[in-house]
Amino acid sequence: MFVLVADRHDLFRQGLVTLLNELNSAEMDIQETSSLSGLTTLLGQARYDLVIIGMNILNNDNHGTLSTLREDYPDTPILAIIETSTPRIIDELRRYNLNGIIAKSASKPSYISALRSLLLGGNHIPLPVSTRRTSSSLSGGSLFPGTLTRRQEEVLYLLADGKSNKEIAHYLRLSEGTVKVHVTAIFKALGVKNRTQAMLLAQQHRDDNLTS
């Protein structure tokens, strides 16, 4: 498996490399670069199974550069690391058909969930806060109508974004114990065995709703 990590900050980039090696016991060839020129050079030399791009290495026209990279390498899975996570920025980035978006300040559990999903061929595209709050805000309505309660849907949205139980509890103002009960109920209702399976299933249904 070939992975490319591009970010201007050495310590952050090296931290991602360490995390990738921890997540995958199989042989993984990881290339690193701290510049846009290095990124384009390496992309032209090999076909990567995952490219992680820190927005801090792009030109001033960040989105234009990202759009060009997406056009030049349409089949390459790309995870964009954004400096600031806002609904506007996430909505702007969604148009480039990225496979993943995550804030640089996200927790380690969030990075683990995002990377696991992408390495398994899934996606990690967070919904804006305004649409995470309730399932009825989605144009397609509930992801799993008649299967999950409204609160379980809210927990599932955040789980699909790679949030830990602690982060979900903080966001929804619940205890971690209550979140754990909801997560267990979600697994049972959806017929899945773990967070990764639930996350992939939710992302698939979410993408179907957003593109229908």
**Which structural class is indicated by helix and strand composition?**
alpha/beta
The side-by-side strand order for the widest beta sheet comes to 2-1-3-4-5
Separation, N- and C-terminal Cα atoms: 33 Å
Q: What is the total domain count?
A: 2
User: How much of the residues is beta strand, in percent?
Assistant: 5-15%
Give the integer mean of the pLDDT values.
81
Helix content: 40-55%
CATH superfamily of the largest domain: Response regulator
Write the H/E string, N to C: EHEHEHEHEHHHHHH
If you had to describe this structure to a student in words, what would you say it looks like?
This protein is α/β, with parallel strands linked by helices and 212 residues long. The protein has two domains: 118 residues, 3-Layer(aba) Sandwich (Rossmann fold), CATH 3.40.50; 81 residues, Orthogonal Bundle (Arc Repressor Mutant, subunit A). The chain is built from ten helices and five strands; from the N terminus they run E-H-E-H-E-H-E-H-E-H-H-H-H-H-H. A five-stranded parallel beta sheet has the order 2-1-3-4-5, sandwiched between helices. Helix 7 packs across helix 9, helix 7 packs across helix 10 and helix 8 crosses helix 9. The protein is elongated and about 50 Å long.
